[in-house]
Amino acid sequence: MAEVILKDIVKLYGREIAVRGIDLHIPDGAFVVLVGPSGCGKSTTLRMIAGLESISHGDLTIGGRRVNELDPQDRGVAMVFQSYALYPHMTVRENLSFSLGLAKVPETRATVRVDRAVAALELGPYLARRPSELSGGQRQRVAMGRAIVREPEVFLFDEPLSNLDAKLRNQMRVEIKRLQHRLKVTTIYVTHDQIEAMTLADVIVVMKDGEIAQTGSPLQVFERPADRFVAGFIGTPQMNFVEGALRQDGGGWRFDGGGMSLPLEPARFAGLGDGRPVTLGLRPEDFVPDGHGLRPPGDVTLEATVTLSEMLGNETLLFAETQATSFVARMQQPRPVTDGERLAFHVNAGRCHLFDCDTGKSLAA
Predict the structure, then answer these.
(1) Strand arrangement, sheet containing 342-347
(2) 56-107 residue pLDDT tens
(3) Residues 171-184: what's their mean pLDDT?
(4) I need a surface site. Which of 18, 240, 265, 334 has the fewest CB within 10 A?
(5) What sign results for the dihedral spanned by CA atoms 236, 171, 32, 78?
(6) How far is it, in rounded angstroms, from Cα 57 to Cα 293?
């Protein structure tokens, strides 16, 4: 196990800047997820840690060693790829033991490592099979086993579940989390799926345009997004945004916009100014359909027309609009809702977020 430290890491492709001087400290034994949209630099960052991409500027240390110029096999890392990267002509056991043979690990010790990985991933019934005889989930488990047998200081996962169907993704997500808890190996995991990030990570690193937008626990990033980008990226469905302005109301403050006038708790925000243009953010669960959830205290009622509903079993998503705005609401006690139905929504003003219109930065105190 080892801590990983990235200091002012830059990656250039010619004149194009793919990663823009990021700083990141990954503690020993942590499960860190790099998440962000395509092209944000997360996979490039992972490949620099692995040694598959050169570092244009900055320092990378693993376990206290500067590894910028070290070959991948000398960094103490093991990587699991999206494509599994198994040898098709080899059996599962041969795939698991191949890297140990290259490293000249004594046979007795190699057998112990392979057997340990087989037990951890329940691969016993498949040892004589070749990859073509395995399901996608089984192949991914073999790929993970091949990383485990190397006994690395750091596990690296590059979108390992993106080729699996939804059910298998859920199963493998649980297996990866349990495995990391057992082995307690520092793990860096890349995904564009924010649900994977929220469920797997001890620490989430949200990236945008080659930079780190925010780092924190899943709850911190969800409850206190640093800016509008993070607020919109983390959470499914994404946060609703409404443009408006701040108004001083006697001894208090209000947000006016989108046909809503919401009271604000001044202690929650910084930089309040009468007439200041802001963007209001509210999660779908903060629009509570009348009679379908606990009515929030001190709520504001908004009449809206449902334009579309999505029944998800344990909940229903309602796409609704007024003359001034549109939003998505989450109905916790689902019932059939027809398009065009008029509903009252209770807006939980105490859960709102405010963002600067120009910079997108959060105004949270």
Answers:
(1) 287-289, 342-347, 300-311, 316-321, 326-331
(2) 999 999 999 999 999 998 999 999 888 878 899 999 999 999 989 888 899 9
(3) 87
(4) 265
(5) negative
(6) 53
Question: CA-CA distance, 321 to 324, in Å (whole number)?
Answer: 8
Q: Is a pLDDT exceeding 80 seen at residue 293?
A: no
> What is the pTM assigned to this prediction?
0.90
Residues in the chain: 365
Q: Which residues of 66-78 are buried (b: 16+ CB within 10 A; e: fewer)?
A: ebeeeebeebbbb
The bridge status of strand 240-249 relative to strand 211-216 is unpaired
* Integer Cα distance of 364 and 356 in angstroms: 10
**Average pLDDT score over the chain:** 92
Q: Which residues contact 78 (CB under 8 A, 6 or more apart)?
A: 146, 147, 148, 150, 152, 154, 155, 156
Which amino acid does the sequence have at 253?
A: W
Q: What's the CA gap between 329 and 304, in Å, rounded?
A: 11
- Which tokens is 58 given? 């900055």
In angstroms, the CA 235 to CA 213 distance is 15
Note whether 347 and 254 are within 8 A (CB): no
Q: How far is residue 275's CA from residue 247's CA, in Å, rounded to a whole number?
A: 6
